[in-house]
Every structure is written in C-alpha cells, then in structure tokens.
Amino acid sequence: MGVDVKPLAGPAFEAAIPALADLRIKVFRAWPYLYDGDLAYEAAYLSRFRHADRAFLAAAFDGDTIVGAATAAPMAGEAEEFRGPFERAGFNVSKIFYFAESLLLPSYRGQGTGVEFFKAREDHARSFGSYSHAVFCGVVRAGDHPMRPADYVPLDTFWRKRGFEKLDGLTTAYSWRDVGAGEETEKPMQFWMKQL
User: Fold this and answer.
1) Which of 2, 128, 16, 134 minimizes the C-alpha distance to 62?
2) Fewest CB atoms within 10 A around its CB: which of 45, 46, 160, 169?
3) Domains in the chain and their CATH numbers?
4) 30, burial (CB in 10 Å: exposed 0-12, middle 13-18, buried 19+)
5) pLDDT tens digits along 53-66
6) What is the pTM of this model?
C-alpha cells in the first residue's frame, strides 16, 4: 500500500479535522491507551495545531483517505501536565519541541511511515534553529493488565532507533476514560527525549 505523507496547514487542515478526529479515536481505542474518545473533543483538540505558533501536523494519505497523522508543537505552549515536569526539573522549555502523537492504522504499520513521521517533525523543529531537544511521552500500563494483548510488542525499540531515550524519573499523569469505564482515571506517562 502506497502512502503519501504531507504537511497540512490552512484550509487543507480544516478540511481534514473530521477525518483526523476519527483516526485519533480509532487508534487510541486500542492497547495501550484504551481511550474512549469523543469526536467533538477531538476536533477541538486538533484545532489548536491549526492556530498554535510553530505547530506542525502531517497526515499520511492512501489516495484521498487519511490513514495516519503526526503532530508537534513547542513545549512552551503545551498544557501544564506536559510542560510542568520539565520546568520543575530545571529544563528550559523554550528549547524543547513536543511531539504530541504519531498515529497510524494497523494495516499501514511496519512500512516506514512511522519513521517518516518522526523525521518530518524533527526537520520542522530544526528549521527554527532554536530547539535543542525533542520529547514525547507514552502511557505506562501494568504488565498484567487484563486488556493487554498476548502478542503486544512495546515500541521502545522503535523509539530508540529514532534516537530517543527514556528520561528516568521524568513522568506526568493525564486523565481519560478507558474503554468500558464509567469515568476518567489518571494514567502515568513516561517522557522520552532526543537531542536535535
């Protein structure tokens, strides 16, 4: 399956928001996020990448269909849950670019698109000449969680091949409603970092 990765901005971004919101819900519903998403919330969340200074969004297209997406923005403009741990640890957040998410439908994985997403975001961050590091975070789930698939392979090796390493002791917590749950619960999130 041939996939084209294209940055989205302006009207093209606006037109893609419903498809991107649907993609986020589909991908994050699976392990390990188990996120029970809402289209209206997702559309509002995504629209911030349309207006945030220096933000980046790329989509992967199979023909006219969006099958993947990646977002990034300067850490200084991020929510306290993401920015705060770095500020408290003494980092200069104005030098950090935050890679918010990288999403791809399962049948398109393992074909290089994920690598392309990381490269595109790194190129974007480097283009400003003022960012020294890129970071992202991933949810931490218990190894014995009842919904963990038997064949699940963590992405740690993939992330290390992109040059990222875990920041030991640097975590945050974020709340969402799990599939099948009645209310939101807080989840631990582990940060990873790469020097640009």
Assistant:
1) 2
2) 169
3) 4-195 (3.40.630.30)
4) middle
5) 899 999 999 999 99
6) 0.93
